[in-house]
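User: For a benchmark we're assembling, each entry needs the component sequences followed by a predicted structure for the full assembly. Here are entry 17's components. Please fill in the structure.
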Amino acid sequence: MRFYYDFHIHTALSPCADSDMTPNNIINMALLKELDIIAITDHNSCKNVKACLDTAEETSLLVLPGMELETSEEIHVLCLFADSSSALKFGAFVEGSLNKVKNRPDIFGHQYILDSDDEIVSEYENLLITSTAISFDDVFSIVLSYGGVAVPAHIDRPSNSVLSNLGAIPDIAQISYVEVSKRNKPADFLAKQNFTKKYLTVQSSDAHYLQDISERENFLEFEKKPQARDVINLLRGIL
Ligand SMILES: [Zn+2]
Ligand SMILES: [Zn+2]
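Assistant: Structure for entry 17:
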């Protein structure tokens, strides 16, 4: 059976995302678009994942807690987890390796931490759109140690991608899937590369605005309605 997903959605915690990207707005938009699975992936933080999971609890939508981590080489990597406590522990680890630069909301935008009623709990002080001290080579095994899976983000983008910043995808055993941005058809893009390994692809919205959340267009196949763990295993290449 096909299950339609969008694994790359920012909330109002990402300074570059719209302040309308609240837990209830995101969940309701994903339901309106008849998606089955989404992931919450703010820049370098998991502080809004719990509110989003709580909001979706009584609905048919499966929400994966995640993060879009920026490595020390300024490469974006989607990190997805099976439960919010693992994601929050990973988030705390990443927080310790962030450059402590104060956010300037007037320049970069607000970084709102919200609750499941969409109320602002607080505003995160340090700028989240910056690199961490975690290297691309290390991130995959670190995420695995928290029970999650890491996927190189928008590999076809001219900045903040593994191909733009390293020139190639290092041979790392834990990489099964790569994300291709909406600018390219994944099969066409892969056909033009000289990868020695065969990668599978995901394609998501990278939504910073509600209207950009994916339509029912990208799917993965499962025998029955998957749990978060099933999605993580599939993205790890374990079937
Ligand atoms: Zn990105
Ligand atoms: Zn993103």
